[in-house]
Design goal:
The N and C termini lie far apart (46 Å). The relative contact order is 0.16. The chain is of the alpha/beta class. The radius of gyration is 22 Å and the shape is globular. The chain has two domains: 131 residues, Aspartate Aminotransferase, domain 1 (Alpha-Beta Complex); 245 residues, Aspartate Aminotransferase, domain 2 (3-Layer(aba) Sandwich), CATH 3.40.640. Helices cover 41% and strands 14% of the residues. α8 links the parallel β6 and β7. The strands form three sheets. Strands 2-8-7-6-5-3-4 form a seven-stranded mixed β-sheet, sandwiched between helices. Strands 9-10-13-12 form a four-stranded antiparallel β-sheet, with helices on one face. α3 crosses α10. Bound molecules: pyridoxal-5'-phosphate (PLP).
Length: 401
């Protein structure tokens, strides 16, 4: 139920997505379609801004709506609104975290081999600009082995551990809470990349025990493009300084007490698009009105059906771990004897012949021509017919390439 007490069914959510009328959209891990209610909210806010900019009552109303949107996001993540800074994307949120650390030559950045390509670019820039050494820990293994590898990789020189909650290439859930506990034993702060997990199932962010968490609105949260966020744990707020932006207000009357540190004031700055934040709030309200437990259960049911129907299909392998609790709505498939051309051909065929959108996925960064797969994202608005359609498309299409 949303904070307004409204409820919404999965079918009602699907009705708000015009794309579902002409394609089976199985690419929410890349970019979700935006529900009509969210689009309308963003549009109405921008239209109101255009018509009434500067009218004090309208400005006050917008500020109140924006505060409610931030509060809705915070409630969903079970954090406080002042611990959240809004950014344009997950990558920008990650940059806020990286910029707030004072990197020095010889520092180490520990990441897993399943991090998003944007994190690899961060690591390369830290190497080139600060002579920071990146250690890449292979995470496509069981949790126990991963934790052993992390324990070996984290040292007194490690400045930060970056680990995905749900890995983008293969949909694997990583043991972020255990990894954070391990890192903290060594005094290493942890940033969790939750771009692929938030919106798929309930996440109690403080219980992950990390220091920072980043995410985007435009994936599983079904929000508008152009808003992401960084969560900063309360104990990190005093030292979280990602920009050259003093907190003091130069126009505050002398003697005004300093406001307590806030992630928003530290991560943001300048004019921002309030309409997008209010739109993200609307997206969060939609998910709350359906219920994240309902979404997770539906997604799990469809994903299990899909995996059962694909298992044993000639030349098709499921890369994603399928045991309970090891993955969610993402399933990555690999294809025996396929190169990139064949896989692009198959992805194109599935769209052309079956109006189904899935993702060609490089499995490593930097790219390795033999490590490639098809990422299938099954979200709360998808249905059984779409999953069956993809299975038929694979049965017909795989032998052709
Ligand atoms: C795990 C993960 N991190 C980061 C990103 C980058 O997100 P954004 O496009 O919001 O910067 C993605 C996008 O696919 C992702 O899957």
């Amino acid at each position: 139920m949303s904070s307004s007490g409204a409820t919404l069914t999965l079918a009602g959510l699907r009705d708000q997505l015009p794309i579902t009328r002409h394609v089976a959209y199985l690419q929410t891990g890349g970019h979700s379609p935006t529900p009509e209610s969210v689009l309308r909210t963003v549009h109405d806010e921008m239209a109101r801004e255009a018509e009434f900019h500067g009218v004090p009552a309208v400005a006050a109303e917008r500020a109140e709506k924006e505060a409610r949107a931030r509060a809705a996001l915070a409630t969903m993540l079970r954090v406080r609104p002042d611990e959240l800074g809004i950014t344009p994307s997950t990558s920008q949120a990650m940059l806020r975290v990286l910029h707030s650390l004072r990197w020095r030559e010889g520092d180490e950045f520990v990441i897993t081999n399943l991090e998003h390509v944007s994190v690899v670019r961060n690591a390369w820039a830290l190497r080139d600009q600060r002579e920071v050494r990146t250690k890449v820990v292979p995470a496509d293994c069981g949790d126990t082995v991963l934790l052993e590898r992390l324990a070996a990789a984290l040292t007194a020189r490690t400045k930060l551990l970056c680990i995905s909650h749900l890995a983008s290439p293969d949909g694997r859930l990583l043991p972020v809470a255990a990894a954070a506990a391990l890192a903290h034993e060594r005094g290493v702060p942890v940033v969790v990349d939750a771009a692929q997990s938030l919106g798929q199932f309930p996440v109690d962010v403080p219980s992950l025990g990390c220091d920072f968490l980043v995410g985007s609105g435009h994936k599983w949260l079904l929000g508008p493009m152009g808003v992401g966020f960084v969560w900063v744990a309360p104990h990190q707020l005093p030292t979280f300084l990602p920009t050259f932006l003093a907190e003091a207000d130069p126009w505050a009357p002398p003697g005004t007490a300093a406001a307590p540190p806030s992630a928003a004031r530290r991560a943001e700055g300048g004019t921002h698009n309030a309409a997008l934040i209010i739109g993200l709030g609307r997206a969060v309200e939609n998910l709350s009105a359906v219920g994240l437990d309902t979404i997770a259960a539906h997604t799990q049911r469809l994903t299990t059906q899909f995996r059962e129907q694909v298992a044993g299909m000639e030349r098709v392998r499921i890369l994603t771990p399928t045991a309970p609790g090891q993955s969610a709505g993402i399933t990555t498939l690999t294809f025996d004897g396929y190169d990139a051309t064949a896989l692009r051909g198959l992805v194109g065929y599935i769209y052309e012949q079956h109006r189904t959108i899935v993702k060609f996925q490089w499995l490593t960064a930097p790219m390795n021509p033999s490590k490639l797969g098809m990422r299938v994202s099954i979200a709360g608005f998808n249905n059984e017919g779409e999953v069956r359609g993809l299975v038929t498309a694979l049965q017909e299409g795989v032998p052709r390439f």
